[in-house]
Amino acid sequence: MLKIAITLPDAIDGEVATIRQLLADGIDIVHLRKPEAGIDYCRMLLEQLTAVERAQIVVHDYYVLYEEFMLRGVHQNKNIGHLPDGYRGSRTRSCHSFEEVLRYKEESDYLFLSPIFDSISKRGYRSAFSHEELQRAADTGIIDNRVVALGGVTYDKIAYLESLHFGGVAMSGALWTTHTLK
């Protein structure tokens, strides 16, 4: 199962060391999502990572960093609606309904579906799906190896998410607010 870390939106002291530790501890991909920190902070952070570490980074918001640092890919969102012709990196996107998953699955390497559980890092961001809805989506193939669970995901919930056929888990609050790495 793919394990993905998503950064917090603002600048964090010691973030380069934390990213290195996450990757060393088994995180497969880090999504660099820094809308509150800005492109200059992201550039400074990426300059401190090795080429091998940068190859495990998917960038949000600042497409230019993908090409500048030869990153793994780009996460499409409101700031990056379309990727240019010839783009060869990983394509990811966030979805908040099963309909969105069905709409974007074919054009994406993987999709985040959220919020699966109550968010740890976003107060008041409550789970959007019941167990029965998730089970139906798994039984009908909506949830599969290209759908990544996001929202309130902690290590103790991974087995449950695997049973629903999620292809991966994405964590933010569980990693960054506690700095507990396993």
Architecture (CATH level 2) name? Alpha-Beta Barrel
Number of helices: 8
**Distance between the amino and carboxyl termini:** 15 Å
- Uncertain segments are none
Compute the number of structural domains.
1
**Beta-strand residue fraction:** 15-25%
Biggest sheet: strands side by side, in what order? 1-2-3-4-5-6-7-8
Helix content bin: 25-40%
For the secondary structure, the number of strands is 8
Rounded to an integer, what's the Rg over CA atoms? 16 Å
Shape: globular
For this structure, what is the CATH homologous superfamily?
Answer: Aldolase class I
CATH topology, anyone?
TIM Barrel
Largest sheet: 8 strands, parallel, barrel
In the CATH scheme, the class would be Alpha Beta
Rounded mean pLDDT score: 92
Q: Provide the succession of SSEs.
A: EHEHHEHEEHEHEHEH
Can you describe this structure?
This protein has a single domain (2-176), classed as Alpha-Beta Barrel (TIM Barrel), CATH 3.20.20.70. The model has no long low-confidence stretch (mean pLDDT 92). The chain is globular. The two termini are 15 Å apart. Helix content is 31%, strand content 19%. The chain has an 8-stranded parallel beta barrel with strand order 1-2-3-4-5-6-7-8. By secondary structure, it is of the alpha/beta class. The longest helix is centred in the first third of the chain and has 10 residues, at 15-24. The protein has 8 helices and 8 strands.
